[in-house]
Amino acid sequence: MNMTRKINKILVANRGEIALRIMRSAREMGIKTVAVYSEVDRNSPHVRFADEAICLGPAPSNQSYLLGDKIIEICHQYKVDAIHPGYGFLSENAEFCRKVREANLIFIGPSPEAIEIMGSKLAAKNAVKKFNTPLVPGTDTAISDIPEAKRLGNEIGYPILIKASAGGGGKGMRIVEHEGEFEEQMERAMSEARNSFGDDAVFIEKYVKNPRHIEVQILGDNHGNIVHLFERECSVQRRHQKVIEEAPSCVLTPEIRKKIGEAAVNAGKSCNYTNAGTVGIYFR
Q1: pLDDT confidence band for 2 (50 / 70 / 90)
Q2: How far apart are CA 234 and CA 251, in angstroms?
């Protein structure tokens, strides 16, 4: 498929502010837009702003915004060239991305291969190792054997963090302060990961108390070029969820900013990342 062909019409497979921002940018570029919406979002601003709008179904997202096959059918019906998924919903669904490309449509986002690698924390850790990216000490593979996990926990040193390989947002994460509570916390982490992401794979790594959480925006093209667009400070959090984002970070020295930017670009190169993406970095 020729990824450089001209885009005349975009379907935005999302809603709310993100959909509206995409549509405004498209209009400035002279590109027509198609909105999709659930019945409850019928009068939303993004629906009124778009050039065309199609109802997907009832309010639950699994009956509307997550209907990837139906969205692709709408694209063919309305002669759409590309799909912009926004964030959330289908944006990190590698199978949907693959189907979009197979339907001879442009997916405005990373490749399905990059989504698969970066959608798994373990796969992502193994990918960035090629660039000698500094990583928090921990396991490289999923672990379910509790005695072996305890041994590794003692080797790494407490406190440790049990983390779900799939997903994010603090789901499937448990801090273990000492060996006596390891088994209970591991079972909880696996159960939450299974319920939240359908995947109970977990790994363990050293728990870093009160780190700085910095996110770096990267941008990659289809020719192997990747740049970073500097950082934002995301350290103010509640239950592993960001509360405030501030740019630029006021705590970085020029030297640390340079190292963090290089690490983010290398993370993108490790999976041949294209389009816009975010790399999270922790340091003390």
Answers
A1: very low
A2: 12
Short-list 201, 188, 182, 195, CA closest to 121:
201
Instruction: Give residue-wise pLDDT tens across range 171-182.
Output: 788 899 988 898
**What's domain 146-206's superfamily in CATH?**
ATP-grasp fold, A domain (3.30.1490.20)
Q: Does the domain at residues 209-283 carry the CATH identifier 3.30.470.20? A: yes
What CA–CA distance (Å, rounded) separates 108 from 113? 14
User: How far are the Cα atoms of 117, 235, 253, 256, 262 from residue 166, in angstroms, in the given order?
Assistant: 10, 22, 33, 29, 25
8 Å CB contact between 176 and 147: no
User: Residue 216 corresponds to which tokens in the numbers above?
Assistant: 């770096």
Name the pairing type of β-strands 173-176 and 160-164: antiparallel
Sign of the Cα pseudo-torsion (208, 209, 212, 214, in order): positive
**pLDDT over 50 (residue 1):** no
**Where residue 167 falls among pLDDT bands split at 50, 70, 90?**
low
What is the pLDDT, as a whole number, of residue 169?
66
The whole-angstrom distance between residue 201's C-alpha and the CA centroid of its chain comes to 18
Whole-number Å distance between alpha carbons of 45 and 19: 9
